[in-house]
Write a structure and sequence with these properties.
Blueprint lengths: L28 H6 L11 E5 H17 L3 E2 L9 H10 L4 E3 L2 H9 L4 E4 L6 H10 L6 E6 L2 H22 L10 E6 L12 H12 L4 E7 L11 H23 L14 E4 L5 H18 L4 E4 L11 H5 L10 E12 L2 E4 L14 E6 L7 E2 L3 E6 L4 E5 L13 E5 L12 E5 L7 E6 L3
Parallel strand pairs: 1-17, 2-9, 3-4, 4-5, 5-6, 6-7, 7-8, 8-9
Antiparallel strand pairs: 1-10, 10-11, 10-16, 11-15, 12-13, 12-16, 14-15, 17-18
Helix pairs in contact: 5-6, 7-8, 8-9
């Protein structure tokens, strides 16, 4: 039976839930929130979410995708937080993208009915799980394949599933409820996963089309691994890749592999789009969307941007084409615990507490206490992180830092995808500047 997201409010908090006030232990989330907790009660280091900013971001990215003729299936691995998945589904997202079979199982536990696994599915236990879930006629699932060997591995795993079913039920004619839908993943030399050429991708598609347990429903890929900035060379590589992805879809149509009779017309999918180059995805898809409208050929053009819900003060602020429309909806707080030199202070948050893979935290302000009004903290930078400490330094050699032992520094974060796995519960304030905690968001890592 699916869990209800509302039931998370009945989970009981414990002393092991880091960052929460000591008095929260033993209370349910609902009981704790009824006491109107304030940020000042929480323990540092702490990551805090902004409810208003998340709602605005969710509405913004949804409207942007729809205006470009695309669906949004945001990447749920960014937060692994069912409450935040629900927010985007209620805003109009047509499903979730996920990265691992375990994440898919979590999403199914909360009743998510439309899932794209942006990865290969080859482990026999995971194949058995998906095969069982496909008995639900309302469940829509698709995964990616990027080689003939991947197709072979899926077929072997599914044969093992059917063999186990035969033995358990004594039914020699047992069959899957329905084939597993797959998309051929196009990659690029030097990229991440994906077929390394259009010709290789076509070969994979032909192999899938010959399968009795898999069904070809489209093409997909990830352009974000091909660039890390918005320089002209990076943009040119991404544009070239996305053109190839659309060309692959057209080639499969020409080969009669994506036509009514083989699959339903509205099941044909083309998917791309992280949160860095989504404007280039829309640009590449636009001519094909217009041509489809003229010919009546139907395709679902799916954007998977996951970081747009939170945005950030670092990597995505610097690379997202929607930076003027989105706003950072997460920040961290860490306390000054050492001030050994005039230009150096050590904070009580480090690599185990704060994301750092796409840039170090950015100092925003400082106050005498958590939840108090902050004054701007300028001419200072976090220059390094240890496991549990951040090095806050004055930007000018010999300059003093305007912080004292016990002060709380607010930090802008970079890369939402590695920010959420640090905590089981993240406090939510209604808006920036508020210290009233209105919710706790539960993560499932």
């Amino acid at each position: 039976m699916s869990r209800r997201i509302d039931d998370l409010a009945d989970e009981r908090l414990t002393p092991a839930d880091t960052g929460l006030p000591a008095r929260a232990a033993g209370l349910t989330v609902r009981e704790f929130l009824a006491t109107q907790p304030r940020l000042g009660e929480f323990w540092t280091p702490l990551t805090v979410l902004d409810a208003d900013a998340m709602r605005r971001n969710a509405a913004t990215i949804q409207a942007w995708a729809e205006a470009k003729g695309m669906e949004l299936m945001p990447h749920g691995k960014t937060t692994m937080a069912p409450a935040l998945w629900q927010l985007q589904l209620e805003m109009g997202a047509t499903g979730l993208t996920l990265a691992t079979p375990g994440q898919v199982r979590t999403a199914r536990a909360f009743g998510v009915s439309s899932i794209m696994l942006a990865n290969a599915l080859v482990a026999p236990p995971a194949l058995a799980f998906i095969a069982g879930e496909l008995a639900d006629p309302d469940f829509s699932f698709r995964c990616w394949v990027d080689s003939v060997d991947t197709v072979d591995a899926m077929e072997r795993g599914l044969a093992e599933v059917l063999s186990d079913t035969n033995r358990a039920l004594g039914d020699a004619d047992a069959a899957l409820p329905r084939p597993i839908d797959v998309l051929v993943e196009l990659g690029a030399p030097g990229g991440r996963t994906g077929a390394r050429s259009l010709e290789a991708a076509v070969e994979i598609a032909l192999r899938v089309a010959a399968s009795t347990v898999l069904r070809l429903v489209g093409v997909a890929g990830y352009e974000g691994s091909l660039g890390h900035d918005r320089s002209a060379p990076a943009l040119a590589v991404v544009r070239g890749y996305l053109a190839e992805l659309v060309a692959l879809r057209d080639r499969l149509f020409d080969l009669d592999l994506l036509t009514p009779g083989r699959i339903a017309a509205d099941d044909v999918i083309v998917s791309a789009g992280g949160s860095a180059y989504l404007d280039l995805v829309a640009e590449a898809f636009a001519p094909a969307i217009e041509a489809d409208a003229a010919t009546g050929r139907r395709t679902r053009w799916i954007l998977r941007s996951g970081a747009s819900l939170l945005h950030d003060h670092g990597f995505y602020r610097g690379i997202s084409p929607l930076d003027d429309l989105l706003e950072p909806a997460m920040r961290a707080y860490a306390r000054v615990v050492s001030h050994p030199e005039p230009g150096l202070a050590l904070l009580d948050g480090g690599k185990r507490d704060l994301p750092y893979d796409e840039g170090l935290p950015v100092p925003l302000g400082v106050a005498a206490a958590l939840g108090a009004e902050q004054r701007a903290l300028r001419a200072a930078s976090v220059t390094a992180l240890n496991d549990q400490h951040a090095f806050l330094r004055a930007d000018e050699p010999g300059a003093a830092l305007p912080v004292a032992i016990g002060d709380v520094v607010s930090l802008g974060l970079s890369h939402p995808c590695t920010a959420f796995d640090k905590r089981r519960w993240l406090p939510v304030v209604e808006r920036a500047g508020s210290d009233l905690v209105v919710d706790l968001v539960r993560t499932f890592f």
